[in-house]
């Protein structure tokens, strides 16, 4: 169809016409809110690089969880920032660890809210890597049992879903087996299957104090230049038992989300990460962009690319606009 027989503007003349043919719709059902749990009481510590985000003690985190649920957000993702760190990241799988405490508190206060937990060691190790070190190198196989122990401890505390973000080879299978052996077969795994070694994580690393003390994460997180590898990573995690596949970051990797959507039939999550959030916030604070409009356009683009769910620090702001 060509002009003048076809005039696309006919269907753009008013909002109701535009609504009738809208192809992609963003809903609160698509949103997951990440939260940072810290020890203590009454703690609401601003994160400088992420305006509007805070490190929260359990009491304040519960209050935010209640507010999120009231806005129609179906799930939160919990990250722990412990008071002490050590080489083996023992706080990650401690029975009374900060995430375990936060899970129990949230499930007690807001039982219907889905609580997902990040399963990784980087926030808990004193060296900042996502696995244990052997002679200065991340020991893939030596890390797997600790990740499984972490996932089981989260699930026993009441987590509805666990989300390994470490990018160790074989960790989904190890976690699935451990959950099943502990009568936790009902707990799904959201795998950070396609996690790139990205510069967009900077504000998160400030928030969680999780930057590596030496070296980088290029030996386990994916090369930003690679796309075909994303299909292999996702396929491997699916074979190992993943229930949801995640792409992280989201905005610079919309092509990856789209290619996975075309290749796999599992639900796909995308993480609108801290750097993406911080750039929009900074631009809005400077008056260079309309923060709300850019936020909603960004989230819509992630949904349009094929994501079923979006982890985003904008979740509550977006939910207020959607409602």
UniProtKB/TrEMBL annotation:
Keyword Zinc: yes
Cleaved signal peptide residues: none
Active site: 195, 248
List of residues binding Mg(2+): 233
GO molecular function: porphobilinogen synthase activity; zinc ion binding
GO CC, alphabetical: cytosol
UniProt similarity note: Belongs to the ALAD family.
Entry protein name: Delta-aminolevulinic acid dehydratase
Lineage: Bacteria, Pseudomonadati, Thermodesulfobacteriota, Desulfobacteria, Desulfobacterales
